[in-house]
Amino acid sequence: MNLRETQRLLWHLISAPDGVPAAPADPGRAPPGGLDAVVRGDDRLGAAERVGIYASMYFFRLLDCLTEDFPALHAVVGHQRFHELARDYLTAHPSEHFSVRMLGRHLGEFLEGHALSAGRPWLADLARFEWVLLEAFDAPDAPPIGRDRLGSVRAEDWAGLRFTLTPSLRVLEARAPVQEVWSAAAAGREPPSLAGAATALRVWREGLRVFHRTIDEVELAALRAVGRGETFAGLCEAAAATLGEERAAAERVLALLQRWLADALIVDLAGPP
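and the corresponding structure tokens:
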């Protein structure tokens, strides 16, 4: 075997979550004479056992990363089941990014079809919630506007006004109030049992702190409208479609803008062309 073939073989063995004995090389990668022809053993450890030391170190480091990134999920399912989940997940989604920070980006989607979610479909949403907390923390900085900036908009320009929100903003629509489980885990309390109840959350960062807030259907509709690039008039229409009354919708959108200012969500304004 040349160097490249040897590297591929060792990577295949070391990155297998079930360990070296349970992960023989593909026939096309198998070296003549077996692993003993590539890795030298001695009277204490054979070739597979020697490579297994590195395989165990690799897997447990990735397990530690997932545990750190998903502490509430870990608390809910327990360490042994989380260990098994990590093994299953890494089999389906081996680490492919140069940063282990990206390791868990598919975990929410993976949990949708995993046995752990049987009877608890909100586990996938809990993983997604913990992931968007990480995304919000890592998002680029953008200074928020002040109230005076919004106050200086001329009355005739309001209808065509567009809003840019902080890059850290994330919106999650969950099947249960998963933030309650996360809060309990963060405080070291026993995670509560959750009943299915649709919950919308927005997550954002101010400085070095990440916050989350539950939002109602009007705010959800308004945030979606902002995401589509809608104007203030478009936000009011989206709110009216939810509330069924235009005047009340405009008042609600104005109240939302005040809340978004207080939460440092608005980072830029653009008037009509």
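(Above: one complete record from the training split.) Residues 123 and 165 are 29 Å apart (CA to CA).
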